[in-house]
Amino acid sequence: MTELSPWIKSRLQTIYSSLVDITIILSTFFISNKIELSSTPKSSYALFCIILVWILSSYIIGRYTFNQKRKSYTILKQVVLSIFSCLICCSLYLIGNLFLKDSFILVNNNSILIILSFIIIFISSISQIKLFTKDNVAYAENWIFIGNSSTYVYLSNLLDSKKISINLNKIDLIDTNLLTLKASNTKGIVVENINDIDKSYYKNILILKDRGIEIISIMNWAERILECCPNKLIEDSYLILDGFSFPKESLQLRVKRIGDFSFSLFLIIITLPIVLISSILIYLEDKGPILYSQIRTGYGGKLFRIYKLRSMKVNAEEEGAKWSKRGDKRITRIGNILRKLRIDELPQLWCVLTGQMSLIGPRPERPEFDEDLEKQIPYYNYRYFIRPGLSGWAQVNYPYGARIEDSRNKLSYDFFYIRNFSTLLDLVILMKTMRLVFNAKGSIAVSK
User: Fold this and answer.
1) Least confident interval from 3-7, 52-56, 438-442
2) Which of 57, 106, 204, 402 could make an S-S bridge to 178, C-beta 3.0–4.6 Å?
3) 355: Cβ–Cβ under 8 A, 6 or more apart, which residues?
4) Going by DSSP bridges, is the β-strand pair 214-217/291-297 parallel, antiparallel, or unpaired?
5) Which of 234, 157, 220, 163 is CA-nearest to residue 191?
6) What is the pLDDT of residue 262?
7) How many CB atoms lie within 10 A of CB 6?
8) So where are the chain's domains?
9) What is the pLDDT of residues 142-175, one digit of tens each?
């Protein structure tokens, strides 16, 4: 497995932001406790809950994102979102204080709570704005590309489509003195195929490496910068030599299975009222069946059956399986809402509970579509090296699409997940999924 630093580094801003908020909240309550004369014992459990909810809500509602081009709007937005997060935390505290009483005490009265809330909102908003402004100075890494012109154009288009501020420049080795690159603030050199470089240039490349300029393969660069493994660049050598595999026995896999079982059981219980209400609405709309089932491809290519809340009209596939698309007239009014909030996926938690699926992993596809995709997309069946999931790296990073090319691009993200699998990455995907659901950006599964 490759090092985790590529995708962690890209999220340092969020990590720094959350650490700053944790420090502010801890400091505020610590100082208030020192000032208060009351001997009432304070609850560390309550403080932990408040901090956890503050960080989660801040991430989900977008407090840890910044738009450099619209600073004035973002400052106002930061304050408003801080107030929103604070209201969520205060509501949690008041409810906990109501039911748990003395075991959930942070302050002696609500007046002090209001004052502390305003202090936290003010200091946190200013700190986040300063942090973002400092770290979002107009700056872009400079990388040099050595390789095929068509590959360079392909990578440049990927950078543009993902709006990544990276300068990737192709050079002609014949007309360029590599030893001058240090002065041009070059981060590193991306090499498509080391065997295509004339050996007379090897010495200069090694000198640059000794000077601190990174020499990196094209796939490792793509994983770090693009956070995917572009399918068009994958070759047999990459799969064989670069350790493309998924651990079949490891502590993290066991932790993943325990988490899948526990969290899916918890979600089944707490979402049961939502499923019941949705079922009633589905039936009232057209008096049709509430659930529908499909055969999907799972781990190792084995077939299994999934169940979903019906979001399409009855007999929507009389003419056979079709790709779903935006504005699909087969989707009902209730179904459209269920899809945006991903409520229609909730019955699949049973598949997670029984071990046929995981909470996080590549989305399972229908066999009739798999057969066609395997013919047109190289290495497509490699995505079934692991159990499919309710959500995945492709689902939280790639917009909806229902074409062969979209499946090819999603496979790039599935490969990245397989290469970089970890419990921490699963948690990141889970958080990003929660944010998508909160913003009502649920995906439309291409296989419905």
Assistant:
1) 3-7
2) 204
3) 257, 260, 261, 387
4) unpaired
5) 220
6) 93
7) 18
8) 5-135, 141-226, 251-438
9) 888 988 888 899 998 888 888 777 888 887 765 5
